[in-house]
Design a protein that fits this description.
3 domains; 26 helices; Rossmann fold; alpha+beta
Length: 636
């Protein structure tokens, strides 16, 4: 696991090139504290920098950039099936001098070219330079677990694992993408290929990008979750057969991700996904799995007791830590440094804390991320599947009246109304969900229903804050009637998972030099899940049906059957105590003018939040607060 950065100048490298690439590289030193490497091809204008976190072959043989023939590689991530690929290459006559997957990538490209990536199982983002052909290849893993930004302007090409590294190149153009700001204000993150800057793109998952010596760029998508969904046939196997196959696929994926020359642990929340990973691994391993859980002082947010109960039942080596409001306050200002692009998922704070906790004992930690998207774990899937059809049967006049009526209600009245609505009564933050209920009254079809139920601002509400707009799902899939939940999950994998969940875990873990691995996101498991019928994901009101049936082989029902809680924190309480900071949002002319945000709209949003004592617009206010902090750190 590492961090990478580099640039390709339109002419020979100048005298300052080494200093520039070292500063870019070392801006990411926390993610690769074990070693640093540098490569300069002065005549060709190429500069590459690498920071290493040693996980496989801890010796100096794993130093990067690594060379083989005309190939030069800098690599971030893991190819878990590297031993299998190495054996295939050995039959082709290749020898190996290290125990690294880095050397395997080099020789796989030498043998098979860019088609080599189709053999890889893992998480990776790498840059591969061919000295004689003067071509640069960038590659990102299938679902975007590892990040990779790229930039091209005036003949110059740059790239880096994190956006902050690009700021250290003196020619970096920081022109903002105002439409990407609209994505952030509506959902709290910016998903690929967009970034906060107009000239910077995120390399899309499952893509190889090739830069030619004349500056021409070619991209090739070698895998995409939406293609997998579209091409899958509905599985007709029996439940018993599907359970057996799922267990085998999970065990294979989990065991691959335990391959390491350093200690490995597990993030354990006590939820279905992390409990499944922990339970299967604990049964397969001879020694106790090291597990880590974060709790909260506020009991309504505290999942630590669930994690503790699972750990005790399975016999893991368990450690937990309680997140206090002081911890929260201490990390808020650091968010803009860790997430060097506006990022509004407040669970980033406990994720940083659990990463710090784990790093005290291990260098690698597994998580359960991806289980909700693949196996039907989100409430919004059930709501969108069931309610969009019913809504279409309601006359337009009636929908308009409901929309207008809910909009006219005071937020506190909306909160009091929630217990009378069966679909919402058991959920925390019901006032925000009622706002979404109002919004979906205007939805036209499943995709728009899902979009409005998954974002915090409609186009009309966004216009109050900014004139800019970008669609969340510009190229919608066609849903299969038997796999509507899979359709929604595929959309989330392409947007929410990549832009929010994986970003959160990668930045928080790498900040403390911890490698986070995502065993549910092996593409063999994704391809299996995308072919499952809805009845194997949500049955009645039971979400993650098939996964729950599997977990029941390992845990008693009382540790499985509980309401989904989520990894949330009490941001409303904190925001209500931050009145001075909120007041600054609508007064900072530099901030408003930079993003072309309307001050009156900001003031009205903050006022609604404060008058309702946190029962309205909490997420939007938090997003504005985060954007303001990011502006002060990176632009002001």
């Amino acid at each position: 696991m590492c961090r990478i950065a580099g640039f390709w100048e339109p002419g020979p490298l100048g005298d300052d090139a080494e200093d520039i690439v070292v500063r870019m590289r070392d801006a990411l030193a926390y993610g690769g504290p074990d070693d640093a490497g540098l490569y300069l091809d002065r005549g060709a204008g190429m500069a590459l920098g690498h920071r290493r976190l040693a996980v496989l072959d801890l010796s100096a043989a794993g130093h990067q950039p690594m060379r083989f023939g005309p190939w030069v590689l800098i690599f971030n991530g893991e190819v878990y099936n590297f031993a299998e690929i190495r054996r295939a290459l050995q039959t082709e006559g290749y020898g190996f001098e290290t125990g690294t997957d880095t050397e395997v990538i080099l020789k796989a490209f030498d043998r098979w070219g860019t088609a080599a990536v189709e053999r890889f199982r893992g998480m990776y983002a790498f840059a591969l330079w061919h000295e004689t052909e003067r071509k640069l290849h960038l590659c990102r893993d299938r679902v975007g677990i590892k990040p990779l930004y790229w930039y091209q302007h005036r003949g110059r090409f740059m790239f880096a694992s994190e956006l902050k590294a690009l700021h250290y190149h003196p020619a970096f153009d920081r022109t903002l993408d105002k439409q990407a700001v609209s994505l952030f204000l509506r959902q709290g993150y910016i998903h690929a290929p967009s970034s906060i800057f107009e000239r910077v793109k995120k390399l899309e998952p499952g893509t190889v990008l090739t830069v030619h010596h004349d500056g021409r760029i070619e991209t090739r998508r070698y895998w995409g979750v939406q293609d997998v969904y579209a091409n899958a046939s509905v599985r007709r196997s029996s439940e018993a057969e599907l359970l057996e196959e799922l267990e085998a696929r999970l065990l294979d994926s989990f065991q691959l991700r335990m391959v390491s020359d350093v200690p490995v642990g597990m993030f354990l929340s006590g939820g279905i996904d992390s409990s499944t990973v922990t339970a299967i691994l604990q049964r397969a391993l001879a020694s106790p799995v090291k597990t880590f859980t974060i709790g909260f002082e506020a009991p309504e947010y505290d999942e630590a007791p669930f994690g503790r109960q699972v750990a005790e039942y399975l016999g893991t080596d368990h450690t937990e830590l309680t997140c206090t409001e002081a911890d929260f306050r201490g990390l808020v200002d650091d968010l803009s440094e860790v997430y060097d692009e506006p990022y509004g998922d407040s669970s980033a704070i406990p994720t940083q804390l659990v990463s710090r906790l784990a790093r005290e004992r291990v260098t690698v930690a597994l998580s359960g991320d991806g289980g909700d998207e693949l196996f039907g774990g989100y409430d919004r899937y059930e709501i969108a599947r069931n309610w969009h059809r019913r809504l279409e049967q309601v006359p337009g006049v009636a929908r308009a009246l409901i929309h207008r009526g809910l909009g006219a209600m005071d937020p506190t009245t909306l909160a009091r109304l929630a217990p009378r609505l069966p679909v919402l009564k058991n959920y925390r933050g019901v006032d925000e969900k009622l706002v979404k209920l109002r919004n979906v009254m205007t939805a036209d079809g499943l995709l728009e229903f899902f979009d409005l139920s998954s974002t915090y601002l409609t186009r009309q509400q966004m216009n109050e804050l900014s004139p800019h707009w970008r669609d969340r799902h510009p190229v919608p899939l066609e849903p299969n009637e038997a796999r509507v939940v899979g359709y929604l999950g595929a959309l989330d994998v392409a947007t929410y998972l990549e832009g929010d969940i994986l970003t959160k875990v990668d930045r928080a873990s790498m900040r403390v030099a911890l490698e986070a691995r995502e065993p549910f996101l092996d593409h063999h498991i994704i391809e299996f899940a995308m072919a499952l019928p809805d009845t194997m994901k949500i049955r009645g009101h039971e979400k993650k049906y098939l996964l729950r049936r599997l977990l029941a082989k390992y845990l008693p029902r009382e540790l499985i059957d509980r309401p989904k809680q989520g990894f949330a924190i009490p941001i409303r309480r904190w925001l209500l105590s931050a009145r001075d900071e909120l007041a600054a949002l609508s007064r900072d002319r530099g901030f408003l003018d930079t993003f072309e945000i309307r001050g009156p709209g900001v003031a009205a949003t903050v006022d609604r939040f404060e008058r309702s004592r946190g029962s309205s617009s909490a997420q939007v206010v938090w997003f504005l607060f985060v954007l303001h902090n990011w502006y002060r750190r990176w632009l002001a």
